[in-house]
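Re: that backbone. Tokens:
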């Protein structure tokens, strides 16, 4: 009898890199929800050149998923097939020049705001209220407190699936509400943001105001993933959710925040299935109540696992 063919593990079929490759890499610890299964392979490229070389040489058909700090991400319980790319230190540089700031895709939004403040650049204060990284902010045209990335972005650089680097001006980025026109399989490497000359003390004061407002209105010290649903045209998602009686609604270990009901919370024992099922229940109730279909703002990746979802309870 012919021996059964053994599939070569994915990690052994990938090209050599200068960064780090790891198989069956845990993801739950690096997402703000603290749930989800592992990456089949995790790749942490050393720098943009390392990433470009990997994309050029990787086997065709291997799926690639890019994650930042996991602030607006739900990884499903079955994990993520293929290669998960996590950009790190080699993509986190920030430099101010005149009234502009150039930042790597892995630079934290709050750090970019702080560099701009120290350089006397006004107009980027809103980034202190946006959790995550510049790459994610570019991808979803992130915004808060009256401004969004389309208001500040001059250009961005991105790698296409073949490892070719592209410089994209604002028109090519095609920003719209919580989206951009850049293909989903392109990977942002950096962005150039423009502000205006300002007073450092005034900039710092505005940043403190944003941080205080965010602290007072959002459950930022819980296991959450940021705003769950995008605001529909002419409406606010949290108001629709509240009106549909979903504040405090629970499913297994997941709960709709009492503090801000466009946030879902892992109370400590939730699975990704609990969180996603609760979100879908919220969408159903809002549609029944208002006729408006909410769209997910949180990015959901991976495959479902076998963990059973809990029972939906309560809400007011």
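Recovered sequence:
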């Amino acid at each position: 009898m012919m021996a059964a063919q053994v599939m070569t593990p994915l990690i052994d079929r990938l090209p050599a890199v200068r960064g780090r490759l790891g198989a069956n890499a845990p993801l739950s610890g690096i997402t703000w929800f603290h749930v989800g299964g592992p990456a089949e392979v995790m790749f942490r490229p050393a720098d943009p050149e390392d990433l470009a070389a990997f994309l050029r040489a990787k086997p065709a058909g291997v799926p690639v998923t890019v994650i930042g700090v996991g602030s607006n991400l739900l990884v499903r319980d079955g994990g993520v097939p293929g290669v998960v790319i996590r950009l790190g230190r080699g993509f986190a540089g920030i430099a101010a020049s005149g009234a502009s700031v150039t930042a790597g895709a892995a630079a934290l939004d709050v750090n970019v705001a702080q560099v701009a403040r120290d350089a006397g650049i006004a107009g980027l204060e809103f980034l202190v209220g946006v959790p995550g990284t510049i790459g994610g902010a570019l991808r979803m045209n992130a915004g808060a407190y009256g401004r969004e990335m389309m208001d500040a972005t001059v250009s961005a650089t991105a790698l296409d699936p073949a490892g070719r680097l592209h410089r994209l001006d604002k028109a090519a980025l095609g920003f719209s509400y919580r989206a951009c026109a850049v293909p989903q399989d392109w990977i942002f490497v950096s962005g150039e943001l423009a502000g205006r000359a300002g007073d450092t003390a005034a900039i710092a004061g505005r940043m403190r105001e944003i941080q205080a407002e965010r602290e007072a209105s959002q459950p930022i010290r819980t296991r959450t993933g940021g705003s769950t649903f995008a605001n529909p045209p002419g409406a606010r998602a949290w108001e629709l959710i509240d009106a549909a009686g979903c504040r405090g609604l629970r499913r297994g270990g997941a709960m709709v925040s009492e503090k801000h009901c466009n946030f879902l919370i892992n109370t400590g024992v939730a699975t990704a299935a609990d969180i996603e099922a609760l979100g879908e229940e919220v969408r159903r109730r809002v549609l029944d109540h208002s006729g408006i279909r909410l769209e997910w703002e949180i990015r959901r990746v991976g495959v479902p696992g076998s963990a059973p979802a809990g029972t939906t309870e309560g809400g007011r």
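The first strand starts at residue 20 and ends at 25. The longest helix spans residues 272-290.
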